[in-house]
């Protein structure tokens, strides 16, 4: 327990010292969303129709960009080896790392999304649906994405490969999340979509720590 | 009781098995494909709704089903490789991966051909085609990840994890895409009904499926033999069998 | 007390056999010196012995545990120094060592850490980010773990003298001798001449590609 708390503090300290780097995926998020009105035209009705989808696609891409950080530095400087040789099981260490990473990346995203909802002319109900789907869906992205990150951490140009591997896996999440936002735009209930996302989240939280730990060992070779 | 199976973890034994099976798969593939395709494209009765253009299903349906099947086989091989540490399992996995990917591409291509007379367009985002497209990306992901590693045993484990993540996701993707499709059904999409298929149409289809499956097996076996030789190039059994080459240790003359 | 037992360990990298049929039995107060050319597999062997890499054949037991099945229990009294330092560049020396101790169950406080850093010649440098230190200084921060983890029974050191000056090498050799005399066991590789007044066994790996 002490070890896990210490790991949390360590990762938060490291994230704080790299806060400039943390800003980059966030800027990317905003920029990508800004591109859409510019590309498609600023008509409020069109923007509202595509808004939920655009924000979700941008969120997935931006989180993928920021995900590499999860294990990269620990792998490079040997801290990962030391974690593997410590008394705490690797899968617990992995859970703490993924959750910490999620918090560091998702909180800024949450804080900035009201602004983006404004850019894309989302209604309040759509905005609530967006927040709920992001809340449930982004940990899913972090946990499943961490498997890909762990597999590619030792590779030199792992970034684009990571996206190629993970984007197909995130498609169901994208479908359900955007469908929830669309239902919200028509003032229909969207509990089923949220329930499915929650189920996917629980499923991945249960299975992915083992997969991530194994993948890290494979990368260590 | 199952001890004999473990012998196939050795590349030499697996190579022997490939040799034995190769010609059988070839025979079934060739006969199945010739009979099935000729029967289906030439002799099966026309569909009363779609006329003759439906005949493409004799290629589209087998390739679509087997593309999915090949992925499952790949994932099972990955599981065997990761849990039981069989080197040959990873060799099978990477042997079948491109074959499955090509099958997926064939299903997309023929699906597109089927679509043109039916929907008037070369591509449509219906549930099946979209699922197949995503399946193709999953295949390409596994293949790209494998080729990114230099140590092929490590590559096998990494690509194996990805194959298993993919196989767990396939049903999820399939149902979510189907559901998505019902949400966004445009007015122009004709309902591709599922009437019960007449036996005169069913038999050539089944034979085609068998032929395609045997064909996949045949090509995979050939690829697997190549993979085994490539990976074991420096082992004595390869030199002994193929008469040696530049740089290998003691050879005993050509076979 | 037997600290490590390796039986018929073999290693394959990129489909080539690096070494095979390695057998090692190491007891308390024993020093094993692994030698061999670059590329012969010394680092791979050490990584297999601590459980970070998987052997293609054979088993390794550390302090009674199969290290590949149970690395977390087996490494409880193990200290490993590889090519990577095991410290984070953006943290200070004190923070690095404090976090490391917390993760490895070592009871310590800031004063003890500062004292050890002083012994290693790093007074005044305890609270700046590691990346601002020289390679040798970073190495010393990493080596502080040897002084901190006092309940270790086995040290596995992969070229520990890299980037160290003559004085610190002597200090490290003295520390190693003390460790051996009080019951510790060491497995190490080095390119430098080892000046330890202590009996050692050698394992020489041949480059066989």
Structural write-up:
- The complex is a heterotrimer of chains A (221), B (255) and C (209).
- Chain A has one domain (2-220).
- Chain A has nine helices and no strands.
- Chain A has helices at 2-17, 19-40, 44-67, 69-77, 79-84, 90-119, 124-152, 158-185, 191-220.
- In chain A, helix 2 packs parallel to helix 6 (90-119).
- Chain A is elongated.
- Chain B has helices at residues 3-6, 11-43, 57-84, 87-119, 127-148, 152-183, 199-231, 236-242.
- Residues 186-191 and 248-255 of chain B have low confidence and may be disordered.
- Chain C has two domains: 1-77 and 153-209, P-loop containing nucleotide triphosphate hydrolases (Rossmann fold); 87-151, no CATH class.
- Chain C has helices at residues 42-50, 71-74, 93-103, 110-119, 135-148, 166-181, and strands spanning 2-13, 16-27, 31-36, 57-62, 65-66, 78-81, 154-158, 185-189, 201-205.
- In chain C, the strands form two sheets. In chain C, strands 6-7-8-3-9 form a five-stranded parallel sheet, with helices on both faces.
- The longest helix of chain C is centred in the C-terminal third of the chain and has 16 residues, at 166-181.
- In chain C, 40% of the residues are buried.
- The mean pLDDT of chain C is 90.
- Classes of the chains: A mainly alpha (221), B mainly alpha (255), C alpha/beta (209).
- The interface between A and C is medium-sized, with 29 and 29 residues.
The number of E-state strands of chain A comes to 0
Number of helices of chain A: 9
State the CATH class of the largest domain in chain C: Alpha Beta
Low-confidence stretches of chain C: none
Average pLDDT across residues of chain C? 90
Identify the overall geometry of chain A: elongated
CATH homologous superfamily of the largest domain in chain C?
P-loop containing nucleotide triphosphate hydrolases
What are the secondary-structure elements of chain A, in order, as H or E? HHHHHHHHH
**Helix-strand topology string of chain C:** EEEHEEHEHHHEHEE
Can you summarize the main beta sheet of chain C? 5 strands, parallel
The overall pLDDT of chain A, averaged over residues, is 93
Supply Rg of chain C. Answer: 17 Å
């Amino acid at each position: 327990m002490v070890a896990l708390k210490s790991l949390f503090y360590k990762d938060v300290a490291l994230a704080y010292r790299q806060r400039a780097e943390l800003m980059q995926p966030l800027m990317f998020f905003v920029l990508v969303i800004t591109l859409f009105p510019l590309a498609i035209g600023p008509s409020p009705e069109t923007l509202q129709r595509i808004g939920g989808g655009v924000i979700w696609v941008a969120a997935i891409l931006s989180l993928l960009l920021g995900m590499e950080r999860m294990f990269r530095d620990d792998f490079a400087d040997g801290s990962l080896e030391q974690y593997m040789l410590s008394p705490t099981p690797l899968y617990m260490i992995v859970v703490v790392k993924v959750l910490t990473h999620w918090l560091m990346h998702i909180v800024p995203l949450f804080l900035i999304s009201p602004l983006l909802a404004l850019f894309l002319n989302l209604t309040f109900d759509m905005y609530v649906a967006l927040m709920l789907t992001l809340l449930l869906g982004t940990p899913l992205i972090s946990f499943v994405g961490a498997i890909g990150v762990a597999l590619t951490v030792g590779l030199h140009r792992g970034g684009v490969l990571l996206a190629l591997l993970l984007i197909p896996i995130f498609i169901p999440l994208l479908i359900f999340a955007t469908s929830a936002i669309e239902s919200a735009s028509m003032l229909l209930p969207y509990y089923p979509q949220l329930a499915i996302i929650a189920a996917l989240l629980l499923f991945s939280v249960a299975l992915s720590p083992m997969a991530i730990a194994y993948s890290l060992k494979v990368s260590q070779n | 009781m199952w001890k004999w199976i473990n012998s196939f973890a050795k590349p030499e034994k697996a190579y022997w098995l490939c040799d034995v099976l190769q010609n059988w798969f070839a025979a079934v593939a060739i006969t199945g494909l010739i009979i099935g395709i000729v029967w289906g494209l030439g002799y099966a009765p026309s569909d009363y709704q779609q006329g003759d253009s439906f005949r493409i299903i004799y290629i589209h349906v087998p390739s679509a089903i087997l593309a999915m099947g090949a992925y499952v086989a790949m994932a099972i091989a990955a599981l065997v490789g990761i849990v039981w540490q069989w080197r040959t399992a990873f060799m099978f996995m990477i042997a079948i991966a491109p074959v499955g990917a090509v099958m997926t591409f064939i299903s997309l291509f023929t699906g597109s051909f089927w679509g043109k007379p039916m929907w008037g367009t070369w591509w449509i985002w219906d549930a099946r085609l979209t699922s197949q497209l995503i399946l193709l990306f999953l295949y390409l992901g596994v293949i790209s990840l494998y080729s990114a590693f230099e140590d092929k045993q490590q590559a096998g484990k990494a690509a194996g994890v990805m194959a298993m993540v993919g196989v767990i996701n396939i049903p999820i993707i399939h149902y979510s895409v189907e559901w998505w499709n019902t949400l966004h059904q445009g007015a122009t999409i004709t309902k591709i009904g599922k009437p019960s298929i007449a036996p005169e149409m069913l038999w050539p289809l089944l034979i085609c499926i068998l032929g395609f499956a045997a064909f996949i097996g045949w090509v995979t076996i050939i690829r697997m033999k190549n993979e085994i030789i490539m990976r074991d190039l420096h082992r004595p059994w390869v030199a002994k069998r193929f008469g040696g080459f530049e740089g290998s240790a003691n050879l005993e003359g050509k076979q | 007390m037997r600290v490590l037992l390796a039986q018929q360990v073999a290693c394959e990298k990129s489909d080539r056999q690096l070494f095979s049929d390695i057998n090692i039995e190491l007891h308390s107060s024993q020093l094993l010196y692994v030698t061999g050319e670059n590329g012969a597999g010394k680092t791979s062997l050490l990584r297999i012995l601590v459980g970070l890499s998987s052997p293609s054949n054979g088993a390794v037991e550390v302090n009674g545990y199969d290290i590949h099945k149970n690395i977390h229990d087996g490494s409880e009294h193990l200290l490993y120094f590889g090519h990577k330092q095991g410290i984070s560049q953006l943290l200070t020396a004190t923070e690095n060592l404090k976090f490391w101790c917390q993760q490895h169950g070592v009871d310590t406080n800031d004063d003890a850490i500062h004292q050890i850093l002083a012994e290693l010649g790093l007074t005044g440098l305890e609270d700046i980010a590691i990346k601002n230190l020289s390679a040798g200084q970073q190495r010393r921060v990493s080596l502080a773990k040897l002084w901190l983890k006092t309940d270790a029974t086995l040290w596995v050191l992969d070229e520990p003298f890299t980037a160290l000056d003559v004085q610190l090498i002597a200090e490290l050799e003295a520390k190693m001798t003390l460790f051996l005399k009080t019951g510790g066991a060491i497995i190490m590789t080095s390119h430098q001449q080892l000046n330890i007044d202590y009996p050692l066994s050698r394992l020489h790996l041949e480059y066989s590609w």
